Amino acid sequence: MTGYTPLKILRIISSLAALVILPGIFLLPKNFPAAAAHWQFIPAGLRTMAVFSLAMLGVFGFSVLLAVIFGRVYCSFFCPLGTFQDVVIRLTKIIGRSRKKGVFTPNRRRWRYSLAAGLLGALLFGTALPLGLFEPFAIFGRFTAAIFKPGFNYLNNLLADQALIAGLYPRENSPFSPALLVIGGGAMLAVAAAAARRGRIFCNTICPAGALLGLFSKISRLKITLDSNKCVKCGQCAAVCKANCIDYATGRVDNERCVVCFNCTAVCGFNAVRYTHRQAAPPAAPDFSRRDFLMIGSSAVAGAVLLPGLLRRTVPAAAAVMPPGALTFDRFTASCTGCQLCVSNCPGRVLKPAALEYGLGGFLQPRLDFDAGKCEYECTACSRICPNGALLPLTVGRKQRLQIGRAQYHRERCVVVTDRTHCGACAEHCPTGAIRMADWKDGLTIPKLKPELCIGCGACEYICPVRPDKAITVSGLQTQGTAQFRRGKPAVNRVENKDFPF
Questions:
Q1: Three-class SS string for 430-443?
Q2: Are 77 and 22 in contact (CB under 8 A)?
Q3: How confident is the model over 121-166, as pLDDT tens digits?
Q4: Burial grade of 175 (CB within 10 A; 0-12, 13-18, 19 or more)
Q5: Segment holding 404, helix H or strand E
Q6: Tens digits of per-residue pLDDT, 19-44?
Q7: What is the 3-state secondary structure (H, E, C) of 71-123?
Q8: pLDDT confidence of 278, banded at 50, 70, 90?
Q9: Minimal CA–CA distance to 27: which of 341, 427, 263, 329?
């Protein structure tokens, strides 16, 4: 009897690698490949729908092929939320609070597929928010962005201040979001509590990726099987099964729920539990009854009709500016799951999860907060890293002409008008020349806008010294456009005065 086999060791190495690389693209994006997020199952499917290409279709198809051949290996080998649950299960065992185990639980496929059908129906009819609330990578990303990254940055800055490790430099957090903290932290605590008590119950009851992969695993070539001629009914395999899917009394393994962790094959001392090609089974009753089909179908219709209508009833606020590459509001909210990867990777710290700025249907999706920063003129990080295709990849040249918002000058608030003093900060920092200083009175100049040159980057609003209501603000566009190009060097306007106070 051994606690480890080559397959279990391979699973542990792969899952730990995923648990290092995937948080790494949130915490240290320059040191970890952002493409790792594109290989997550649900994001790969969303990206295939939003940005169809043979490459993305190949990525999603590869995930499906893995399930058809090997079963639900994705859930134990590559899913960061799955590995997080495994860590929780292991910790509960170490501290002596073992989870409920050794009991074969019924396959609640009716509820699992009904939920998945409702989420898919809502997605196909224009809103990704319901799917994002249950999608494993989005749950993991929100927790990492809300709790793990601030903690990581605090420790990093503490070590940098003490000069204990060479090469460390202070790191800043993204803008604080109470909604992200509550939703991200709360969801992760709920998953952890469920794992501590019932193992992988989230994966086999709620997770939409688990539901879809379970369908393919039913026909997988390789499966966990019980050899009734060798099994002595000791129950050790069921005791270590995280999915509670082994019924050793009848010699049956529910491979639809099996996450292929190889715990059972490692613990069996009689070689009765094997990972092998599927064997012919006697005829069985159909998995789905008429009641099941009616419930699943009704959930799909409800998801397609009711959820989009409820969640997209409100329109975005004027100040809600979408990230570059969103293109249209409808397209953006139909693809974004709010995983916070773009927020964590924004070098200008201008991205922030929305509360209700986009309406309820855009909850936790990224928006630009020009109180916190500006959209860097030469940066394409968010569009490059988005795993779902909600933000289309942009070249630097395309980004520099993409109009994501429109600046508005509020003359009655301007410090030049109210305090009769020189300023010009907005024109000084405008990268496209959309703002220039025009003569006003008494030798003073005030901003003058050229809307056709404005890209809505927010540099003017961010730098404006007026508080609390700034003299120049940027409003969002429901359809991102193309600004005119100013010939010659992009503007860096110079303000000729000796009294520039900022």
A1: CCCCCEEEEECCCC
A2: no
A3: 999 998 999 999 999 999 999 999 999 999 999 998 888 887 777 7
A4: middle
A5: strand 402-409
A6: 999 999 999 888 888 888 999 999 99
A7: CCHHHHHCCHHHHHHHHHHHHHHHCCCCCCCCCCCCCCHHHHHHHHHHHHHHH
A8: low
A9: 341
Instruction: Tell me the helices (H) and strands (E) count for the chain, helix number first.
Output: 22, 10
Residue 184's contacts (CB-CB under 8 Å, 6 or more residues apart) are 139, 142, 143, 145, 146, 147, 340
Residue 181: how many other CB atoms lie within 10 Å: 17
Take residue 301 and report the two structure tokens written for it. 């219709």
Question: What pLDDT shows up at residue 448?
Answer: 95
pTM as predicted:
0.90
- The burial of 407, by beta-carbon neighbours within 10 Å (0-12 exposed, 13-18 middle, 19 or more buried), is given as buried
Distance CA 119, CA 43 (A): 14
Q: Which helix (H) or strand (E) holds 477?
A: strand 472-482
For 249, counting Cβ atoms within 10 Å of its Cβ (0-12 exposed, 13-18 middle, 19+ buried), the class is exposed
Query: Coil, helix or strand for 205?
Result: helix
Please tell me the distance from the alpha carbon of residue 74 to that of residue 40, in angstroms, as a whole number: 9
pLDDT-above-90 percentage for the chain: 69
Q: Rounded to the nearest 10 degrees, how much is the dihedral formed by the CA atoms of 118, 121, 123, 126?
A: -130
Contact 265, 5 (CB under 8 A): yes
pLDDT band for position 494 (cuts 50, 70, 90): very low
∠ CA 472-173-366, rounded to 5°: 60
Please, are residues 32 and 24 in contact by the beta-carbon 8 Å criterion?
yes
The sign of the torsion formed by the CA atoms of 357, 359, 360, 366 equals negative
pLDDT in tens, 285-333: 446 677 878 888 889 998 888 888 888 777 677 779 999 999 999 999 9
Calpha distance 440→148 (Å, rounded): 51
Q: What is the maximal distance between C-alpha atoms in the chain?
A: 100
> Which tokens is 496 given?
């000729």
Q: Is 485 exposed, middle or buried (0-12, 13-18, 19+ CB in 10 A)?
A: middle
Q: Using CA atoms, how far apart are residues 316 and 334, in angstroms rounded to an integer? A: 14
Bond into 468 cis (ω within 30): yes
> Which helix (H) or strand (E) element contains residue 292?
helix 290-311
* Predicted confidence band of residue 486 (pLDDT cuts 50, 70, 90): low
Contact at 8 Å (CB) between 75 and 82? yes
CA distance 51 to 392: 7
